[in-house]
Amino acid sequence: MSRRLLFTAALAFATTAIACAAEAAAVKNIVIVHGALADGSGWRKTTEILEKRGFNVTIVQQPITSLDDDVAATKRVLDLQQGPSLLVGHSYGGMVITEAGNDPNVAGLVYVAAFQPDKGESLLGLASSKPAGSMDIKETKDGKYLYLDPGAFAADFAADLPKAEAAFMARSQVFASKQAFSAKITQPAWRTKKSWSIVATEDRSINPELERDMAKRAGSDVTEIKASHAVFASQAEKVANVIEKAAKQAGE
């Protein structure tokens, strides 16, 4: 082989290697979808950790009026991102990212103590298949929305958070429509996208065994963290570590 051909081959190899490296590091947008009976403010610690590591983090404040409304709210945020995004969902947020994750700019999905449904499944159906405990869920007077009794919030949702922080989360929770909890998934994105799952081993809102089963079914990369359902707040650094790993691997 002539020197010119050797140089051309070496240049092509180097260009390919640089392109692959750039692609592997391409996912810098993290879009977080919070769960029901909470809002996005609980993700502040995780967000600040990820931002210090160079990520662009946006939190969707979806209305939880219906699954369709929440998917639409998530897509509006995805449309604002420059380049591919990693979608992160907590609890009910897992239902949302399972549908919204079909957006072509979504590079991967991270389920954080979340529902990870298949086609035709709803949150209510999954939750009843392996009950987690006796969550004190109440209805609003009009019978259309659900909320967690503030007096039971700490024990049921955030047992490993400081009392004041759990109390604030209880007061700032977003009520969830029954329609959102009964809606069924039509096209689960984890069937075509890479996925990661965090199992909160002390979860009293979603049965940890259900979290394990859903992750196994989806072929997700699983990390177990000893924490309550509010793992994103009580173990922010560990959750950020999983998200960072997923963002790197999603670009490979």
From TrEMBL:
Keywords assigned: Signal
Domain AB hydrolase-1 per the UniProt entry, residue ranges: 30-241
Keyword field contains Phosphoprotein: no
The UniProt record lists the keyword Transcription: no
Region forming the signal peptide: 1-21
InterPro entries: AB_hydrolase_1 (IPR000073), AB_hydrolase_fold (IPR029058), Sec-Metab_Biosynth_Hydrolase (IPR052897)
Protein name: Pimeloyl-ACP methyl ester carboxylesterase
Organism from which the protein derives: Rhizobium leguminosarum
